């Protein structure tokens, strides 16, 4: 297995300590989990372990202040052609896309074009009768996943085995369903919220909201390897994603809040700017911090991702894995936590 590290200087990582024992003998103090499992001592080892445990490829980017930004990869991004994972390859970022909608909505609210208190029925009156409580569900509720609107992907008939490219057809799965709860009475994640926010932004702007994302986020941050949808990219540059050992890279998903394509480096740039940069003005950050998160994870068939910022060590850590199913989600979670633990030492 090959690990490619594009930086010239490695992070300073904790090494196993050698201690004297008696006159001339020595032993190693080895860090272990509570169950006795020996913990990895390098990012490379963490990635190697993930591949050994069953994921096809793993892509990591670390941006930590006062250190060189670094990419790490292991495994394969194309099993048929035996292509090794490449940190510059494109990847379906799935629900990390929701951060871009949340930022765009925040900016439009700060500009006075939207209000957090605007209702769903006000902006999309033509569907008001098909979603319970549409007269009281607000922009804020949808941003916060506190609307009570049914999640379309949890409904009978919706199948992740299929492509999903028709926004209005996908929305039908959420129509005419009882509310999951009274708006603002609890939190429950629903992809329908961000599909509807995408439609609201399109109506407000008079053009596709992804053009606003490009103008207000991608271009200023020089995120030239980030795209709105699968149809916008050269698919030969896209990492193959495997679900049930079947390549799902051509299985399109064009639904707002889950459609975007990017690289580990571009997403690291975005997460850094969102958390500590100038992407949001102070006024915008006040709004944003009241309605959404500053990091996210994502899942689509064959693709899972984590993008977060750790303020204790001032580090952005992005992780992509091109495998879903079996125990790959647990492997992804464990690998990410192990990376953070190493960086915190």
From TrEMBL:
Q: What's the domain of life for this entry?
A: Bacteria
Membrane-spanning parts: none
Q: What is its EC number?
A: 3.1.1.103
Descriptive protein name? Serine hydrolase domain-containing protein
Recite the UniProt keywords alphabetically.
Hydrolase, Signal
Q: Which Pfam family, an example, fits this chain? A: Beta-lactamase
- Signal peptide position in this chain? 1-25
Q: Where is the Beta-lactamase-related domain?
A: 46-284
Q: Which PROSITE patterns match?
A: PROKAR_LIPOPROTEIN
Q: Which molecular function term from Gene Ontology is one that the record holds? A: hydrolase activity
């Amino acid at each position: 297995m090959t690990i490619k590290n594009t930086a010239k200087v490695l992070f300073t990582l904790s090494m196993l300590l050698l201690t004297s024992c008696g006159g001339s003998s020595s032993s190693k103090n080895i860090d272990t989990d509570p169950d006795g499992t020996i913990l990895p001592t390098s990012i490379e080892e963490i990635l190697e372990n993930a591949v050994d445990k069953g994921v096809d490829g793993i892509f990591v980017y670390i941006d930590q202040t006062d250190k060189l930004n670094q990419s790490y990869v292991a495994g394969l991004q194309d099993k048929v052609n035996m292509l090794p994972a490449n940190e510059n390859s494109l990847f379906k970022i799935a629900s990390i896309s929701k951060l871009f909608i949340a930022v765009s909505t925040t900016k439009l609210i700060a500009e006075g074009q939207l209000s957090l208190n605007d209702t769903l029925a006000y902006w999309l009156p033509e569907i008001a009768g098909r979603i319970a409580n549409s007269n009281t569900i607000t922009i804020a509720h949808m941003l916060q996943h506190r609307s009570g609107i049914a999640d379309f992907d949890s409904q009978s008939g919706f199948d992740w085995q299929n492509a999903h490219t028709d926004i209005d057809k996908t929305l039908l799965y959420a129509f005419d369903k009882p509310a999951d709860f009274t708006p603002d009475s609890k939190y429950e994640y629903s992809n329908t919220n961000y599909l509807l926010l995408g439609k609201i932004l399109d109506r407000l702007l008079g053009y596709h909201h992804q053009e606003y994302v490009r103008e207000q986020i991608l271009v200023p941050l020089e995120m030239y390897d980030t795209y709105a949808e699968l149809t916008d990219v050269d698919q030969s540059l896209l990492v193959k994603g495997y679900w049930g050992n079947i390549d799902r890279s051509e299985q399109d998903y064009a639904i707002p809040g889950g459609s975007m394509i990017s690289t580990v480096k571009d997403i690291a740039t975005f997460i850094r700017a969102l958390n500590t940069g100038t992407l949001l003005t102070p006024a915008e950050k006040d709004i944003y911090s009241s309605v959404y998160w500053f990091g996210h994870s994502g899942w689509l068939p064959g693709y899972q991702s984590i993008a977060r910022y750790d303020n204790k060590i001032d580090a952005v850590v992005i992780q992509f894995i091109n495998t879903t199913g079996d125990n790959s989600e647990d492997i992804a979670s464990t690998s990410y936590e192990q990376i953070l633990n190493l960086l915190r030492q």
